Amino acid sequence: MFDAKKYLKDCGHPSLIIEKASRQAELFFMNLERATGRELTELEKRKLTWLATDDWETVGVFNKLFAELPSR
């Protein structure tokens, strides 16, 4: 099972980034798995976790878009 916090820690990110990015990554996972109707692969989860370390506003925009997908 993929652990976003461990992945970010292993990549050398500071604790503040680890906490915030891992929460955002879990939102990515939840919203995309609901939208696609399948479990994400470990590779997909790693890439989404990496994306979650980027600009917080950008991450929020993506999460809102992903959350809207199932309602369409």
What is the fold's blueprint, element by element?
Elements: H1 4-10, H2 15-36, H3 42-51, H4 56-68
Helix pairs in contact: 1-2, 2-3, 2-4
Instruction: Tell me the structural class.
Output: mainly alpha
Strand tally is: 0
Percent strand equals under 5%
Distance between the termini: 30 Å
- 3D shape: flat
Report the mean per-residue pLDDT as an integer: 90
Instruction: Using the CA coordinates, give the radius of gyration.
Output: 12 Å
Order of helices and strands: HHHH
Instruction: Report the helical percentage.
Output: over 70%
Please give the count of helices.
4
Q: How many independent structural domains?
A: 1
Low-confidence stretches: none
Main sheet record? none
Provide an overview of this structure.
This protein is mainly alpha-helical and 72 residues long. The protein has one domain. The chain contains four helices and no strands. It has helices at 4-10, 15-36, 42-51, 56-68.
Features:
72 residues, 4 helices, 0% strand
Task: Give a brief description.
This protein has 72 residues and is mainly α. The protein has four helices and no strands.
